[in-house]
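REQUEST ID: PR-0412
SUBMITTED BY: lab tech R.K.
PRIORITY: routine
TASK: structure prediction, single protein chain
INPUT:
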Amino acid sequence: EAAKKAEEEKKAEEEKKRKAQQQAEAAKKAEAGPPPRNWEGEEDPQRWAEYLERYLRTDPSALDLNGKQLSNKKVTMLCDAIKVNKSLKEVYLGGNSIGAEGAKALAEALKDNKSLQTVDLSDNKIGAEGAK
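STATUS: complete
OUTPUT:
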């Protein structure tokens, strides 16, 4: 009986620590605020992903990444964000040399996103394989 009670107390303490850590992480993200001006041109993919996350927390209805020379890694990060975002209505990705891989990742993301109404992929390199 005492061992069972000790085990329950231990689990409760672990849960309390986990919740406190989650709250601290949420507070840290909240105080990060919006990304800096011209964040879209950031070259470092990890920093770019952080800025994208911060931008999307502002609940924008449009995201203009025309001509930002998005790498496959950045397109993949963007697709991960698009899957769960509910505020975006328009995404502009023209002139980024997005190829078949990026187009397929975007198609997968769009299966999960029901809010996007406009996706501009003009002037990319999607090709026949990416259009499947």
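NOTES: The mean pLDDT is 87.
REVIEWED BY: pending
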